[in-house]
Amino acid sequence: MINQSNLRKALSTVLDPESGRDLVSLGVLRELQTDEDAIRVELDISSTDESVQSTLRSGISAAVRKLAAELGMRRVPELEVEFLQAGSTPNPLPLVRSVIAVGAGKGGVGKSTVAVHLALALARMGRKVGILDGDIYGPSLPTMLGLQETPPKIDGNTIIPFEKDGLKVVSIGRLVEPEKALVWRGPMAHGAFRQLALQSDWGELDHLIVDLPPGTGDVPLTLAQLLPLTGAVVVCTPQKVAQDDARRAIRMFQQLGVSILGVVENMAGFTAPDGTTIDLFGRGGAEDMAASMSLPFLGRLPIHPELAARGDAGEPATCHDTEGLGDTLQSLGTAFDHRIRMAERGEDRPTLVIR
Ligand code: ADP
Question: Model's pTM, two decimal places?
Answer without folding.
Answer: 0.76
